[in-house]
Amino acid sequence: MPKLILRYIGAIDAMNRAIGRMAMYLIFVLIGVLLWSSASKVFMAPSMWTLETAQFVMVAYFVLGGPYSIQLGSNVRMDLFYGEWSPRTKAWVDAITVFFLIFYLGVLLYGGLVSTAYSLGYFGDEPFRFFLDLVGTFVTQGPSAAGEMLGFLERSPTAWRPWLWPIKTLLCLGVLLMILQASAEFFRDIGRLRGVID
User: Fold this and answer.
1) Contact by Cβ (8 Å): 161, 155
2) Domains of the chain: which residue ranges?
3) Please, how many CA atoms are within 13 Å of residue 68, restricted to the half-sphere of its CB?
4) Which of 5, 65, 138, 153 pairs as cysteine with 23 (C-beta 3.0–4.6 A)?
5) Of the candidates 89, 110, 122, 128, which has an alpha carbon nearest to the alpha carbon of residue 171?
6) Residues with Cβ within 8 Å of residue 38, at least 6 apart in sequence
7) CA-to-CA distance for 73 and 20, rounded, in angstroms?
8) Which backbone phi and psi does 163 adopt, to 5 degrees?
């Protein structure tokens, strides 16, 4: 197996391990938000921002921890037969089924990018072109010129009305990290089949 692929596996694993280990502490943020929500309802006026903030923190916890979960093999599996198979058979099956996961994540990423572009005020049919133009303008002309490209920023329909683009951007980042981790798992399974990786 080429050293470049082994370095890729190591780099993706290290990145997703670091992000996943940081993301796991978001559970304490979630607990704090929900505790504040409960206390504010009992002792004072209820806070409008707590429910949606809890949802946003849970999304961040889930999508940023997902790649680390794939890396550890702790994601949900149908273990009826899989648990009894040899490591080589597991590697064969994983090397094939990972393409279904990558396809699903690719569709999810495309939908997330379309939704993120919409939340930034782009209502056209080419979200990739929009993001390329936005980044190009930001790099060449600065943040103010890039800000002029944005349209009406989407807000939540709740009373708090937060902008939705930050959480949608985070969702896209998490799905991209899952795609990278799934591809690293594919290369790892090929390495196991060749006897290069344990």
Assistant:
1) yes
2) 3-194
3) 16
4) 65
5) 110
6) none
7) 13
8) -65, 145
